[in-house]
Amino acid sequence: MTKITWLGHNAWSLQTAGTTILVDPFLNDSPTAPVKAEAVNADYILLSHGHSDHVGDTISIARRTGAKVICNFEVSQWLAKKGVAEDKLVGMNPGGGTAQPFGHVKFTIAHHSSSMPDGSYGGVPGGFLLTLEDHRIYFACDTALFLDMKLIGAAGLDLAVLPIGDLYTMGPDDSIDAVKLLNPKRVAPCH
Ligand code: NI
Ligand code: MN
Hints:
Elements: E1 2-6, E2 12-16, E3 19-23, E4 44-46, H1 52-55, H2 58-65, E5 68-72, H3 73-81, E6 89-92, E7 97-100, E8 103-109, E9 126-132, E10 136-139, H4 149-153, E11 159-163, H5 172-182, E12 186-190
Parallel strand pairs: 3-4, 4-5, 5-6, 10-11, 11-12
Antiparallel strand pairs: 1-2, 2-3, 7-8, 8-9, 9-10
The structure holds nickel (II) ion and manganese (II) ion.
């Protein structure tokens, strides 16, 4: 049983296998977030790239809850400098993955940018392909449309979470082409 809740923008909360996973927890400064950072629990935080509307409250939530943060390598090093414990950081690069007790997390490619809120280098952006005990879920996060989405969807997706906002990510028309490439059972828009 997996439950997913939209927390505004590209922020999501997943409950699966007794574990709470936050994606891109931009909450306290988000006009669309229904909760404040102080009110959420987390065992894991998946952080797609360095932009402030994704990093959001990652540092405060990670420090308060002891959640493990899964992100790209450069973002993990930046978070370590900001006081997130090194043993709570999993830094990856595109195409890589990490097995965790709740399932597998793969860092997928994204066509976007990734500077940190303070301007430092944020590595490359990504999305997340989650293989959970009962579902496979793809979070595209901030990206343009790309043809390799066909590969991401090839193993079968229960849910694809796609940006539709245009300007900083793909817009509605390209998101419909993304759905055709990914062929998920369900799709959820955001950003
Ligand atoms: Ni971004
Ligand atoms: Mn964004």
